[in-house]
């Protein structure tokens, strides 16, 4: 009888936050772990290098979090932005896990900074990493390697061997790598222009909207394994291929890896017009961290997939400045000309908006009573006439962070085939985020999902490598003790 030879116990495919959490957890569970990162070492970490924080539930002030952000409020925030397109069981599991993960993260080198103040409104809800996502990624790689995780760079996986829902091996540059279990954490398909084109198709104007999308993160998320799993292995899927974490960013941003500094954060303090110089959505609907991620899709639906954020000097100093300066003018007419917008239409839009403003007590840190009347779309909060020179305009494009089409899971993080969970193939991060994020986004929740499911997937991959069944639910705070109990 021939005994199958394995190159490793747990194979982790991907190199960002979710993959690293999985690799570390699997190694802590006693497994030999090999992590394959498709990017070169200098570009390792995928989109995680561009992150800054994770959203955390807490019932009272905790270390770097002020006041309280209870489970129900977190859930309602998520429910609102997703419009109900979320799995409540999995979402609440992520929410609860977010309250306990920081101790584990610190143990693996992540340093959190003191609470932020100012206009971001997130000191209560989000824990920020000192040095941002790149520092987090580097800390995890150091910890993983110190624990004995083997890491290979420039190692893109192009196909998997799966038999009857059981993972057998992965192929990298013609080489077969066999493992007892596997975690898929290789990201979405946002960097694959042809797939984006296919998903979005043509609009009523005959345009391919995807041709004008910019990618906020890595160029390496081509969706190769996601498509392979969906089309070749017929894994159960979740999500709409047109839904994504999509932000309005500076139209001058690079095609890839522009990151957070290209985001335009003055939308709620002014108005946004399209190429036809007309407003198209309520700029003051809610606090910016709860609404910034809807604006990429809104701009994507406009002619030529472009918009223009217009502010006056009263807004300066009340938002995080982007990396590129805005177009500046001393009059609104001059600003329209410099932005190449139709001047009469632009002036009509601005005059109607200014006349509709009902200014009460302006407070950009609260849902104030400054609103419009008699103009469509309305502006619900922070509505003040744009009348104080100099004036500024920022051209906006859709900036895709990650896509929501992915693999369907349960609370074991197992990949499912015909609604049956695999015994040894798990998924985490962007490849399964659509289970929680059917649409929309709220700041930091992607890292919450990746951290929770990365740890779950890693724990269960280690158990599978030992021939043991997967454990259900989130990982306990005391990881080592939890692994002993699970074993």
UniProtKB/TrEMBL annotation:
Keyword ATP-binding applies: no
Region of interest (Disordered), residue spans: 468-487
Cofactor field: FAD
Recorded superkingdom: Bacteria
Limits of the FAD-dependent oxidoreductase 2 FAD-binding domain: 9-436
Keywords: FAD, Flavoprotein, Oxidoreductase
Key word Transferase present: no
Pfam assignment, any one: FAD_binding_2
One GO molecular-function entry: oxidoreductase activity
Protein's name according to its UniProt entry: FAD-dependent tricarballylate dehydrogenase TcuA
Organism: Diaphorobacter ruginosibacter
